[in-house]
Design brief:
10 strands; 4-stranded parallel β-sheet; about 300 residues; alpha/beta
Length: about 300
């Protein structure tokens, strides 16, 4: 069932996936497919808002640190709206969408840094050069929560009620928290009678949100960066510091949620399944949310937030 939104038209489809449901042995799974967005990911929701905000405040350059998807999205919207994008990418990242970012006209800065170090480097350069900083944890981060909360309103308007579970892949925790925040607003507005339980999925190679929740820590714990092992598959998820990790962790506790580490092989296997069964392109790291939903949601109503594979 789909209900017209009172707020705005849906930005991405909600798919009741009977084919994949039969394949997985689940009847009540829905896919919130962010792959239809212009650059194929949910990052487009916040990139557009950041570029608009930068222009409104008189900036002529916008900067971001990225492992790929966010950089492509910022570069796309910066070109569309007529300002310059500066994109910082760790030089050893294989999944950087480098050619696409360059094609959008962005200036690319590559450094032999980890992602978190690149965020801090770009932040310093933004302050020094008067660039608008769109990176995670920036002074402009409230836009991220606002942008991702739109997903919650769309799910409600498309489904007609709050699902029992929402499963989301977790890197920095920003998308995860933004969707939780949206459902929290819907509950306060008395448009839903419950907030879904949230499922967080990430890589076995390390994520502070998953680590902290599984170990029952109430405060987010940074991981040992020397033990972080980045792969082509896990790059969008792996972190020793999650910039919105505390808020994501709090959301897990408040919803009595679940958290799961997912192997690269399991991500690839389910991503391939979506392609074969549904002809749906799903980024393997994003498919971690479907793996976790299979483990925890049972036959309850569950919305799995998936993003597209690289374009």
């Amino acid at each position: 069932m789909e209900i017209e939104s009172e707020d705005k038209p849906p930005g991405s489809p909600l798919i009741r996936d009977f084919d994949m449901g039969n394949y997985l042995g689940r009847s009540n799974f829905f896919i919130k497919y962010e792959g239809v967005n212009p650059t194929g990911t949910q990052k487009d929701r916040i990139s557009r808002k950041h570029v608009e905000n930068a222009i409104e405040h008189g900036y002529t350059e916008i900067s971001v640190a990225t492992c790929g998807n966010y950089g492509a999205s910022i570069a796309y919207y910066a070109r569309a709206m007529g300002i310059k994008a500066i994109v910082g990418i760790p030089s050893d990242y294989s999944n950087s969408r480098h050619a696409e970012i360059a094609a959008y006209g962005a200036d690319i800065i590559e450094k032999p840094l980890k992602y978190e170090e690149m965020v801090e480097y770009i932040r310093d350069e933004a302050n020094r050069n008067n660039w608008y900083d769109a990176s995670p944890g920036s002074p402009n981060k409230s836009i991220d929560v606002s942008g991702y909360s739109e997903i919650s309103y769309e799910i409600y308007n498309q489904l007609g009620f709050a699902p029992d579970f929402v499963s989301v892949p977790v890197g920095n925790g920003t998308t995860f928290y933004g969707i939780y925040y949206g459902f929290q607003k819907l509950y306060r507005e008395r448009r839903i009678d419950k907030i879904p339980k949230f499922i967080a999925a990430s890589t076995v190679a390390g994520n502070p949100v998953i680590y902290s929740y599984i170990n029952r820590f109430r405060n987010i714990v940074e991981l040992d960066q020397e033990k972080i092992v980045e792969t082509y598959v896990n790059e969008p998820l792996i972190a020793y510091r999650s910039y919105d990790g505390q808020r994501a962790l709090d959301a897990l506790y408040k919803t009595h949620g679940k958290a799961l580490y997912v192997s690269d092989n399991d991500m690839i296997k389910l991503s391939d399944g979506f392609r074969k069964v549904d002809n749906l392109s799903v980024l393997p790291a994003s498919a971690s949310a479907a793996v976790a939903a299979l483990k925890f949601a049972g036959n309850n109503t569950c919305v799995v937030v998936l993003t597209g594979s690289d374009k």
